[in-house]
Amino acid sequence: MPATKDFRTYPFNADRLVAAGKNVGQRVYWKLYAIENLVRVMTHSVLTAQVGGDWWTKTVDPGIQGNVKRRRADYTNQPWHSTPGKHDIYYVLLPELSKIITANSHLFKPLIPNIDGWIGRIEQLHLPRNIVGHMNWPHKTDRLRIDVVHSDLQELVQKLATSTVLSIP
User: 66-96 burial string, b = 16+ CB within 10 Å, else e?
Assistant: First the structure.
């Protein structure tokens, strides 16, 4: 079977478009899904361990809290749609998640000494995540970056689980 290519580089063909979508979904999208949710679980777990169950109100910037409140209202106003999740962290965008970790990096460092490096890696995924999230074709370099971060993050979470109770928000 020939390699799937970006459908936009050829004359229009619906079958090629579908193949490209399946390729991005099977090779990249699921890894971004896992990355974002692993980071959410990690953030929630570390901040719960370090601050307590009310970490959201104590550690999250009021601007981010306001953004989340507006996003929650969008779902409340259209209750026929699924919601992202029960906890506010599910309404946070990747750049905001990075800001939460950055602002509280001193709370992460005892458990993840290289948290600054992880913040940088998460920030590097912002644009590739948007490319994939908006159903576009990521560059080979971006796919490789996603692969490496996904693999490394799984290792980090396994190590973290030996010293911290990981809990789903």
Answer: eebeebeeeeeeeeeeeeeeeebbbbbbbeb
